[in-house]
């Protein structure tokens, strides 16, 4: 922004103020403070025209520091600085009316701190740009994990259908409302175990796909699996530790309730009321506990996959990244879960209704098989959308927090400049997610040193 024609533009502290070029000078040259007119007639130089919108001159990210010696223009690691490839300018410059600079966007997100709309839009672009690795793989995982549950539900619905069609069997004792509940419980337990393992592996693969998609690159399922395979034990351990951490207060509360019940604390008059009060107090304390730790450890899985950290180290890493922005991260996570639940409900309700009707009204093994197929299909359709959606939001939240806390967008911009120059995305961009490439790290640490954000 300037104060008027011919005034000196604002520059960052410590930078030399740029003077307009002398009249008739070559474009791109800069005059010294004493050169204000033509040397032959002494006439004052006309004021320089304002730069066009999107120009780069004079912007601190452009690498065109006025008055800086050759080879020292821009700051190290910034797009346009030493080591940057020619032809790439990084941030767009401010126009004459102070337009906001536009960050480069080589992939699914702009390489700058992200807003909520950027995260949701980037997640949708991740799914659209990699349908096989997101929708296809999620559908396969959902189909495999839903089969035991669907079979158990079909058997249960078939038993209920027989009871409804023959009430006399219920009165005679030949059938009970609990018939078929055993297969349903077994199927539910098998599905939970399979889902625990499969979704953990799926989250790792989707996170690796996202890490490449940020740069505009694509990766096959086989390539992603080759990169994630060694991280599966750490991912499983992470989910197990976090699950125990979330369930620990609940286990303690159940043990305490059983102990008090055995001791007869709830047998006297008013014992039921005391139990209800204690349950409400526990619930009011347990919900904030779960939400707090869920938000603080939400970025652990991306740290395991992209930074190759261990279980406890990834949890500490997530804690540090989320610290200072807990409410925002929690709000985005809750909104994501709400959207995922709505999408899952809308997509699975028709199949659930159809499968339930087939199971209740059918009287043959074929009807039970069709019911199981309908329920499985409903789970697959909903999970193939919600799995990559949730994994994408978590991964982009991780990228956003690193850009805000570590100026990691400067690293991404420099890599995007190199990719734009060479015309393709090299697999080595996966290594940039390692913390040694974060801006502000020790110059002696592995990887380039980018310095703090100005």
From TrEMBL:
<feature type="transmembrane region" description="Helical">
    <location>
        <begin position="185"/>
        <end position="211"/>
    </location>
</feature>
<keyword id="KW-0472">Membrane</keyword>
<keyword id="KW-0812">Transmembrane</keyword>
<dbReference type="InterPro" id="IPR057169">
    <property type="entry name" value="DUF7847"/>
</dbReference>
<feature type="domain" description="DUF7847">
    <location>
        <begin position="114"/>
        <end position="391"/>
    </location>
</feature>
<feature type="compositionally biased region" description="Gly residues">
    <location>
        <begin position="77"/>
        <end position="96"/>
    </location>
</feature>
<feature type="region of interest" description="Disordered">
    <location>
        <begin position="1"/>
        <end position="101"/>
    </location>
</feature>
<keyword id="KW-1133">Transmembrane helix</keyword>
<feature type="compositionally biased region" description="Low complexity">
    <location>
        <begin position="63"/>
        <end position="76"/>
    </location>
</feature>
<feature type="transmembrane region" description="Helical">
    <location>
        <begin position="135"/>
        <end position="155"/>
    </location>
</feature>
<feature type="transmembrane region" description="Helical">
    <location>
        <begin position="232"/>
        <end position="260"/>
    </location>
</feature>
<dbReference type="Pfam" id="PF25231">
    <property type="entry name" value="DUF7847"/>
</dbReference>
<protein>
    <recommendedName>
        <fullName>DUF7847 domain-containing protein</fullName>
    </recommendedName>
</protein>
<feature type="transmembrane region" description="Helical">
    <location>
        <begin position="367"/>
        <end position="387"/>
    </location>
</feature>
<feature type="transmembrane region" description="Helical">
    <location>
        <begin position="326"/>
        <end position="347"/>
    </location>
</feature>
<feature type="compositionally biased region" description="Pro residues">
    <location>
        <begin position="45"/>
        <end position="54"/>
    </location>
</feature>
<feature type="transmembrane region" description="Helical">
    <location>
        <begin position="272"/>
        <end position="292"/>
    </location>
</feature>
